[in-house]
Amino acid sequence: MAQGPRPNGGEGYDAAPFVPGRGGLRALRDAAAGCRGCPLYREATQTVFGDGRASARVVLVGEQPGDQEDRQGRPFVGPAGGVLTRALGEAGIDPAEAYVTNAVKHFKFEQAARGKRRIHKAPNLREISACRPWLLAELRQIAPEVVVTLGATAGKSLLGSSFRVGERRGVALPLPVFDGEAAAEGMLVATVHPSAVLRADEAERAAAYAGLVSDLGVAAELLR
After folding, report:
1. N or C: which end of the chain has fewer CB within 10 A?
2. CA–CA separation, 130 vs 35, rounded Å?
3. Spatial separation of the C-alpha atoms in residues 138 and 125, rounded to whole Å
């Protein structure tokens, strides 16, 4: 099994000291609220931790909270979450049975030149690496059979900086090892982030959505 990327993304960027050594998901969520593992906490409204059942067989990993998620404190409550919920149902996965989270737990954005609009910015590799201990702790608590990475940031968090969605999507892969320990014993399936469907041109949107459903169908087959 391939060795995963190193957990420390650089000096001053590391959430590991904030991750509790004992307790379940609730203890992780409570501790994550005070995480200062990278500078993103300074501007974000709050930490947005994962949501769902501790016994979930499938974990869905997105990029980072968006504007609505940052305000409400829950992952995938914005437009992309609606796309994901619909696609999961069509692929044969009950959304209520899944655990959803993000590779990065704070909203990264820049303020629009005019008005109050907050414009999403993709996390960099140092921020992704700094936040990885939270994701690994979630996976070790849940021990899912399948992990689905949604988009490049989630894929890079678990598969390394060379990950490209187009090269790896829709294929069942073993979960990588980090410091000699697998995050879980299950499999990983990569696909696009549902926001990519929303960003697609109208002429390409149906095909983009069908591709997402098809990739999620691979995960559904692994769960059967």
Report:
1. C
2. 11
3. 20
- Say what the pTM is: 0.92
Average pLDDT over all residues of the chain: 93
Instruction: Kindly list the domain boundaries of the chain, sorted by start residue.
Output: 26-223
Q: Is the pLDDT of residue 70 over 60?
A: yes
The C-alpha atoms of residue 161 and residue 153 are separated, in whole angstroms, by 9
The closest alpha carbon to 209, from 68, 121, 91, belongs to 91
C-alpha torsion sign, points 215, 216, 217, 222: positive
Statement: 26-223 belongs to CATH 3.40.50.280 = no
Residues present in the chain in total = 224
